[in-house]
């Protein structure tokens, strides 16, 4: 009886420690976002005093009004939506098409092609050769320069391959006996069974495209083609708020106060779409992360 009591006490202590640890980690993860939101909607005088630590003080939407009055942010938003939708669709389609033959054991080039795929995870040609290649094939200052070089991720390809390998080959053999071609088998059997990994890949590629800015900074000198992250970079790093404040009729002091909040408002506006989409694919996200961790 004493042994059971001690074990029960140790289990309770373990659960308490785990709960405390989870709460601390959750607070650390949420604090930057809550702080940014609080700074963006608090009164300008509190932002100027820098006396906001967690919850907002006062209420003001002045910074958001300034952001949405700027035509440049709407153009950047439309560019980012185009990059995200087109890039994600093409990436998911090409990744699934490439992963399917690599997951079949009878494919004679399977191991050799996987070596090439894994090689790209550790070695690359470098920044200058990539820039010369983009310029040579005519993609410089083209929207496709932000999509074409990043269509397939080697890591995502390996994850998709591992998922497709978990689907029994007997299904493919049964479909072949019924007269189905490899294309029909892939479209009618493997794709419907691959909805979890497709959702995970969609999230991975969409977040990558939405947050991408380096390709635009390197290959897009035309500001009209820049994504939202380049607009955010201009506001945060270059501290250029003139375009967003250009149409404002505020005085100099009010303008100075609003400028401090403007950076926080732009951050919230930039990350909000991804935060809104994530809950809908979260149930698939956990399953996708666990792919390959357990071998039968």
Description:
It is a single chain. The chain has 296 residues and is mainly alpha-helical. It has two domains: 2-49; 62-289, MetI-like (MetI-like fold, Orthogonal Bundle), CATH 1.10.3720. Helices cover 73% and strands 0% of the residues. It has 14 helices and no strands. α1 (2-41) runs antiparallel to α14, α5 (110-122) packs antiparallel against α7 (154-165) and α12 (228-236) crosses α14 (252-289). The radius of gyration is 25 Å and the shape is globular.
The CATH class assignment of the largest domain is: Mainly Alpha
Total count of strands: 0
Number of helices, where a helix is a run of at least 4 consecutive DSSP H or I residues: 14
Query: Which structural class do you get from the secondary structure elements?
Result: mainly alpha
Q: Give the total of domains.
A: 2
| Helix content class | over 70%
**CATH homologous superfamily of the largest domain - what is it?**
MetI-like
Strand content: under 5%
CATH architectural category of the largest domain:
Orthogonal Bundle
Cα radius of gyration in angstroms: 25 Å
CATH topology of the largest domain: MetI-like fold
Mean pLDDT score: 80
The low-confidence runs, each spanning 5 or more residues with pLDDT under 50, are 249-253
Helices and strands, in order, run as HHHHHHHHHHHHHH
Task: Write down the oligomeric state.
Answer: single chain
């Amino acid at each position: 009886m004493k042994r059971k009591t001690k074990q029960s006490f140790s289990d309770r202590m373990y659960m308490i420690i785990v709960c405390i640890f989870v709460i601390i980690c959750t607070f650390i993860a949420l604090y930057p976002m809550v702080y940014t939101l609080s700074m963006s909607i608090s009164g300008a005088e509190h932002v100027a005093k820098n006396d906001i630590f967690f919850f907002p003080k006062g209420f003001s939407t002045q910074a958001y009004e300034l952001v949405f009055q700027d035509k440049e942010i709407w153009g950047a938003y439309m560019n980012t939506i185009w990059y995200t939708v087109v890039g994600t669709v093409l990436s998911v389609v090409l990744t699934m098409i490439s992963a399917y033959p690599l997951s079949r054991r009878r494919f004679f080039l399977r191991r050799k092609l996987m070596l090439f795929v894994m090689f790209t995870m550790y070695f690359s040609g470098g920044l200058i050769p990539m820039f010369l290649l983009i310029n040579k094939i005519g993609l410089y200052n083209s929207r496709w320069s932000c999509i074409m070089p990043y269509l397939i991720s080697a890591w995502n390809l390996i994850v998709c391959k591992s998922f497709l390998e978990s689907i029994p080959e007997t299904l493919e053999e049964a479909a072949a006996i019924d007269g189905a071609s490899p294309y029909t088998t892939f479209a009618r059997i493997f794709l419907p069974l691959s909805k979890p990994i497709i959702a995970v890949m969609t999230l991975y590629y969409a977040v990558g495209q939405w947050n991408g800015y380096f390709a635009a900074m390197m290959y897009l000198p035309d500001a009209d083609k820049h994504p939202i992250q380049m607009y955010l970079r201009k506001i945060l790093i270059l501290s250029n708020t003139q375009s967003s404040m250009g149409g404002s009729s505020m005085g100099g002091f009010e303008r100075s106060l609003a400028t401090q909040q403007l950076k926080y408002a732009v951050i919230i506006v930039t990350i909000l779409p991804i935060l809104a989409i994530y809950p809908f694919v979260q149930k698939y996200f956990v399953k996708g992360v666990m792919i390959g961790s357990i071998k039968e």
